[in-house]
Write a structure and sequence with these properties.
The complex is a heterodimer. By secondary structure, chain A is of the alpha+beta class. Chain A is built from 4 helices and 6 strands, in the order ααββαββββα. Chain A is globular and about 40 Å long. The relative contact order of chain A is 0.18. In chain B, a hairpin with a 2-residue loop joins β5 and β6. Chain B starts with a helix and ends in a 10-residue tail after the last strand. At the A-B interface, β3, β4 and β5 of A face β3, β4 and β5 of B.
Chain lengths: ~130, ~130
């Protein structure tokens, strides 16, 4: 296993352990994280740390698995699956994704995630008085 | 025409560059020759896949009839275990005259020189489109 793949696995392990310090430690100071390709990226460790806090308040990541991957120079391309628990909607979501992870000096400097966020299941209808009774 | 045996040992990105040429020329027979008869083609992960080369033919026939000005740019790629990973952008004008553009990643699987699996990941509807 390459040194860069070890760094990515360390990030995945930190995510699983909900260890934000260890997660952020795998990145460069100027890390750029495109959590959606249709949104502004998260830039820098302080913003990444804030993003992780906000994310954890909305979702619990129950699985982050790599199915296929390829490495080229300072880049790893991944196909994987994440399973999320959506706290507000009380639903579990399987989110297939691909991502590009780029490295500099043994740290992750850029991540770009590709998936279809619109495929997330709709929020459950609010309980009516009848059904809630 | 390049045969499947020729593509077997060729870098996968070169195979896909030739497939792109077939697309640009709207050479349907040339395009379909890259696929295995039992290919599973997810042109969008999250939508029902196309199963088999005949279904791919129906899809590409409609795609070329409905869309114009199609551009497919591969920005980065890597290969491993008979798979080609790509990151890029696709752009076209649809039947309603609307410009559709999305960044994407894809993985293309090969066996015996033919494409057996293809999965493209992107957000079908741009969440910023109505803003």
């Amino acid at each position: 296993m390459s040194e860069n793949m070890k760094v990515l696995e360390a990030m995945m392990a930190a995510s699983k352990a909900k260890d934000h310090d260890a997660f952020v430690e795998t990145t460069t100071d100027d890390v750029e994280y495109f959590w959606s390709m249709h949104a502004r990226p998260i830039v820098g460790k302080p913003s990444l740390r804030k993003f992780l806090r906000n994310y954890d308040s909305s979702f619990e990541q129950r699985e982050w698995s790599v199915r296929n991957w390829a490495e080229k120079e300072q880049m790893i391309m991944v196909e994987g699956m994440e399973r999320l628990y959506d706290r507000a909607r009380d639903v579990v979501i399987d989110n297939p994704f691909m991502q590009v992870v780029e490295f500099r000096d043994g740290k992750i400097c850029s991540v770009r995630d590709y998936y279809d966020g619109s495929k997330m299941p709709p929020a459950p209808k609010p309980a009516t008085q009848e059904s809630a009774a | 025409m390049t045969t499947a045996s020729q593509t077997r040992d060729e870098p996968k990105i070169d195979v896909i560059r030739r497939l792109q040429q077939a697309i640009a020329a709207k050479d349907k027979a040339g395009f379909l020759a890259f696929f295995a008869p039992d290919v599973e083609y997810h042109y969008h992960v999250g939508t029902r896949p196309l199963m088999g080369r005949d279904w791919v033919e129906k899809f590409i026939t409609k795609y070329w009839a409905d869309n114009t000005g199609s551009t497919w740019v591969i920005v980065r790629h890597a290969e491993a275990d008979g798979c080609l990973f790509t990151e890029g952008r696709e752009q076209y004008t649809n039947a309603d005259g609307k410009l559709v553009s999305h960044p994407y990643m894809g993985i293309i699987e090969f066996k015996d020189g033919l494409i057996t699996g293809w999965r493209d990941y992107f957000q079908m509807a741009d969440p910023n489109a109505t803003k």
